Amino acid sequence: MSTTKKPRMSRRHFLFTMAGAAAAGVVAPGIAAPAAPKKTKILWWSHWAEEVNKRNLLIDVAKAFMAKHPDVEIEQVWWDKTAMFPTMRNAFTAGSGFPDIFYFDMLGFAFIPAGWVADLSGLNWGQVEPWAREMYKWAGPGGKVGNWGVPIEVVTDEIIYSKPLFAKLGIEIPKSLQFSAEDFYQVVKKIRAGGYDPFSQGVGDRDFPGTYVTSWPLLATLGEKALRDLWSGKTTWKTPEIRGVLEYAKRLIDVPCMPATFSSMGNSERHIYFHTRQKAAMFLGTTAYAARTFSPPEKGGQPPDFRSGFLKYPAMPNGKGNQLKLLVPNAGISVAEKSPNKSVAMELLQSMMTEEFGNRWLAGTAVTTGLKTDPSKIASPFKWYLEEYAKSHQGQEYAVGLEWHAVMPPAMVDAYGQVVNAAFPARRASIDEVIEAMERARPH
Question: Which CATH code of 3.30.1460.30, 3.20.20.80, 1.10.443.10, 3.40.190.10 fits the domain covering 156-328+386-441?
Fold first, then answer.
């Protein structure tokens, strides 16, 4: 059984299998049929209600597991994560109604020290990239380090550009795919002068789409170690370098680079605004972009003939990290520590930790993964997109695992989400206010 839950939307059911068929034949009068064996029921909650390709893959996983284990029945419930995590928190707190296995990302970090997430260190990690496994190691209850999620989705932060609009506006891209910071600013101005929004960003239902305009100049300017120290609260925001980055971001913001509906536009809408309505020339986001983009057009996916490409982050003057991109955990799958069927949920999760599933994931969603894959065995309908991605990543270096939700203390996460993500790009916070907000949130 598969169920979809989304905020303010009615519940939808996707019945794909019911374990156990009715026994054939006739039962003689007065003789009771033998009772069917009791099934182990697994409740599986997932984000990706609107991401058809991911959903179909996970439905296939459940089907295959139930075919192999006829004594198991899996109910899949599909959510938008903004509703799923608060509901799951309430269920864990109450001690009932929580899922056995579930989608996990940075919104669930507090679940780990609370003891709600099972340590997955005992699973077989042989088909997971070692660097990806390291991303999902955090301190759990009592400070013990464990693996709390399987990195199904590991992503890079990207500047994705519209090939039709860049051609229409006469924007020439360097062979290196990397503009200087000043040249990129001029590109943003040219896009605005041409009647389009430079970036297809909106923070109506997410705490991150507005951060990119600040985050990538920070990485390019500071380099990996200094940015990690800044984001973790070890170093101050009151430096000339940080002010210089914010001044550059403010120049982009003041063009303006954001849509007029930036503060209210939701995540699904900003995808459509970019590839279907074609009102913006660039999309700042992660490689998870592909999941919604390659859904069927009637489900919010792009027109079949739309083409996009990837740029490297613009090079900042004297930048210590101009060669870097962020490579970060985006979405995993976890098991509830107090699930009455934890061993079965673990076995279900283990069934996904294979190269075969990694190949299917990359081919079917075009979203990068932490599972091992074999490109020679991948035949994807999104080949052109994967080739564009590979071309832009030739010789690329990465800041691995440097994700601000994961690195910052909770107070800094809140400040970054409220000020750097929302207020600053909307021109409702000054540079001084950004610096002061982040300084107040730092551990002292």
Answer: 3.40.190.10
- Domain borders along the chain are 2-16+38-154+329-380, 156-328+386-441
Is there a common fold for 2-16+38-154+329-380 and 156-328+386-441? yes
Spatial CB neighbours of 330, under 8 Å, sequence gap ≥ 6? 105, 153, 154, 155, 286, 288
| pLDDT per position as a tens digit, 156-198 | 999 999 999 999 999 999 999 999 999 999 999 999 999 999 9
Residues contacting 320, CB < 8 A, separation 6+: 221, 222, 223, 226
Helices of type H across 207-277: 212-222, 224-231, 240-253, 267-275
Residue 193: phi and psi, rounded to 5, are -65, -25
Helices of type H across 69-180: 81-94, 130-135, 163-168
Does the pTM surpass 0.85? The reply is yes
- In this prediction, the residues of the chain whose per-residue pLDDT falls under 70 are 1-36
CA distance 237 to 219: 14
Element (H, E) at 42: strand 40-46
The DSSP secondary-structure symbol of 315 reads B
Tokens of 382: 């999104």
CATH 3.40.50.1390 fits 2-16+38-154+329-380, yes or no: no
